[in-house]
Amino acid sequence: MQYGYRCDDCESVLFPTTTRAELRWLQDRVHVAREVAKHSSTGLDSWMMDGLNFLEEHQGHSIVLVSRR
Ligand SMILES: [Zn+2]
């Protein structure tokens, strides 16, 4: 099972390679993750960068966690 984000407004989806719990964590802490990314020389894990970009791109839209097989 894969987990990802779906924007109800745009009907676009993203399935980063990570767990449901991690996606939930990131969704609740976009601002924290963005700060960490700014101050980290090595950058974030790629799933986190992808997720962050998606969440920021769809800021203010209704984003839900979805799953697929
Ligand atoms: Zn959107």
Task: Tag the structure with descriptive keywords.
69 residues; alpha+beta; 22% strand; globular; binds zinc ion
**SSE-based structural type:** alpha+beta
Radius of gyration: 12 Å
Multimeric state: single chain
> Whole-Å distance between the termini?
5 Å
Estimated helix fraction: 40-55%
Tally of extended strands? 3
Strand content: 15-25%
How many DSSP H or I helices? 3
Low-confidence stretches: none
SSE series: EEHHHE
Report the biggest beta sheet as strand number plus sense, adding barrel if it closes: 3 strands, antiparallel
Q: Strand order, biggest sheet?
A: 2-1-3
Give the overall shape: globular
Give the count of structural domains.
1
Can you give a write-up of this model?
By secondary structure, this protein is an alpha+beta fold. The protein has one domain (2-68). The protein is built from 3 helices and 3 strands. The protein has helices at 20-28, 30-39, 46-57; strands at residues 2-7, 12-14, 63-68. Strands 2-1-3 form a 3-stranded antiparallel sheet, with helices on one face. A hairpin with a 4-residue loop joins strand 1 (2-7) and strand 2. The protein is globular and about 35 Å long. The model has no long low-confidence stretch (mean pLDDT 94). Zinc ion is lined by residues 7, 9-10, 58, 61.
